Amino acid sequence: MTQVLQENRENIGKSKLIQGRKPRWTWIACLAGSLIVASAIMAVVGFNVAGWAVLTALFYVVSNYAVTRIMENGRKATDQLWTNLVVGAFLVALLPLISVVWTVLSIGLPGLLAPGFLASDMTGITGAVDQASVEDGTAILGGVKHALIGSLVMTLGATAISVPIGLLTSIYLVEYSRGGTFSRAITFFVDVMTGIPSIVAGLFAAGLMLTLVGPGDNVMGFTAVIALSVLMIPVVVRSTEEMLRVVPNELREASYALGVRKWRTILKVVIPTAISGIASGVTLAIARVIGETAPILVTAGVAVSTNWNLAKDWMMSLPVYIYRQMMFPTAPAAPDASEQRAWAAALVLIIIVMLLNLTARFIAKAFAPKKTGR
Amino acid sequence: MSKRIDAIDFNVYYSKFLAVEGVNISIEPKSVTAFIGPSGCGKTTFLRTLNRMHEVIPGARVEGKLLLDGDDIYAPGVDPVSVRSTIGMVFQRPNPFPTMSIRENVLAGIRLNGQRISKGDADTIVEKSLRGANLWNEVKDRLEKPGSGLSGGQQQRLCIARTIAVEPDVILMDEPCSALDPISTLAIEDLINEMKDQYTVVIVTHNMQQAARVSDKTAFFNIAGTGKPGKLIEYAETSTIFSTPREKATEDYVSGRFG
Fold first, then answer.
1. N vs C: which end of chain A shows fewer Cβ within 10 Å?
2. Does domain B5-97+170-254 have CATH number 3.40.50.300?
3. Between β-strands B230-237 and B217-223, what pairing exists: parallel, antiparallel or unpaired?
4. How close does chain B come to A100, measured CA to CA in Å?
C-alpha cells in the first residue's frame, strides 16, 4: 500500500495521459520564428508594416500547423490550423473598428476639447473668422451645438413615431395574425422596407411633405423625422417581433387559464417578459438612424444656427454637419478650421452611438426577468 | 363551490382532423376524476376543451355540448374568459411568471385582471392560497423573491396556489407531476386529496398508480391507430377500472399488456 502510494507520488508530473503533447510555449516560439523570418524577407525586399504583418501571420499559421503535426498528430494539427484561422478572421474583422476609433479619437479630440465646441453653433462664423484664427493661431471658433440639437430632436421625433407603430405591428403579427395572407404581406413589405436605400426614404419624405404642405414650407425637421421613421419602423418591427416570438407560449396559456383577457395578457405578461429585448432593439434602431446623412440632407437641409423647432426652418444634424464641413469648408483658403470641426463632430457622433449601445446593454440587463432568487 | 361537468356527444377537431370523438361523460362535483390512456389518445386535448383553452390553438374547434352545472359553455355568446376564470388549469410544466415575485405570482389572476384590492386582502389571499397549496411554510420568508427561483415541485405548487387564488369551481390538471420527483409528487397528490373537499378536480396522468391513488373515478381513453380519433373507452369507479374493467382494452392497458 505504502509502496504504491510512493510510486504514484513519483509519477506525478509524468502522467501517461499527457504524453506526446507539445510544450505550452510552442506558439510563442512559432510566433518569434515567424517574426524573425518575416523581418528578414522584409529587409531584403524593402520594409512595410502591412507586408510584415501578413507574412508573420502566414508563417505563424504554417509553422504552428507543421510543428503540431510533427510533435502530436494530424487531428491536433487540423484543430490548431482552424483555431488560428478563426482567430485571424476575428482580428481582421476587428481591424477597421480599432482603426476608425483610433483615427477619429486622435484627430477629433483637440477639436472636441476646444472651448465652447459643444456650446456654440456656427452663427457668425464666416470664412474671414476662420481664416483669421488659422493665420493668427488663435482658438478655432464655432461649434456643433445646432447639429447636436438637430440630431437629437429629429431622432427623438423619429423614435416617437416609429416605436408605437413598430410595436403595435409586431404585436399584431405575433399575437393576433394567425399567419394569414395579411400578416404575410406585412412581413414581406417590412422586409422590403428594410432594404430601401436611405436616400429614397429621404426623397419619399420630401415628396410627401411637398404634396401635403406645398413647396417652400416643406423644408423642415419634421420631413427628416418622417424619412428617419421610414428607415426605423422595419428595424423596430423586426427586432420586436423576434423578442415577442421567444416568449414561451406556456406563459400566455397560464395567463389565459387564470381568466385573463388577451389584451391584458399581452400588456402584463408578454411585453414585460420581452421588454429587455424590445428596449435594446429600439435603442439599436436609434443608433442606426442617428448616423443617417442622405435622407436628412435632402429634407432638413443645412443650417448654421440652432433650431429646436421641428415644424419650421432648416435644421442641422451631425452627419450633415460633418459632410458640409469636410466638403465645403467655411473658409476655402483655410480648410483646417473646418476639418478640425468635422473630425470633432465625428467623434461626438461615435460617442453618442457608443453610449446608445451601452444603454441598450444596460437596459437589457436591468429589465431581464430575474432568473434566480434562492 | 364546486360544479359538475357533463359532455354530450362531444367531438374535438384540429382544423379538419378529428382528434377526439363522441365523448359522453359526467364528472361529479367534489370528486377527483383521472383520465388515463396512451400518448396521443386525446386526454389532454379533451381536458383543454373543458375550460376552452383548446381554442387558443389556431383552427381548433369542437362539436357537441359541454355542460357546466347544466349550462353549455360552448353556447353562442358565452365568453371564454369567464369560463376560464371558473375552471382553472395547472399545466404539465410548472410555468410561474418569470417577471413576478412569488407573492405577485399568487396574485396574478387578480392583478392581471386589473382588480384593485387592499394590501390586507392581498395578504390574506396570498397566505390562504399558499397554505392551500402546502407551500406557505416553505416560502413565507421570501415572498418577494422571483417565483422562478423555486424548485420544480415548489413551482408547480406555486402554480396550483395561483390557480386556487382566483377561487375557481373546477381545477383541471394536465400531468401535473410528470416533471417532478417522487417527494414533490407525493406533496401534490396529498394536495389533490385535500382539494376535492372544495373543488371538482380533473387530472390527466400517465402514471396508473397515481390515478389509482388519487382519483374517485377513472376514464380510459384509447386510439385505434395513428390518424384515427381518440375515444373514451370506459369510465367507471377507479376501483372497478383497476380490478374488474368491462372492456378488454382497459384491462390490457391497466395490467400492462397493452399493444
1. N
2. yes
3. antiparallel
4. 40
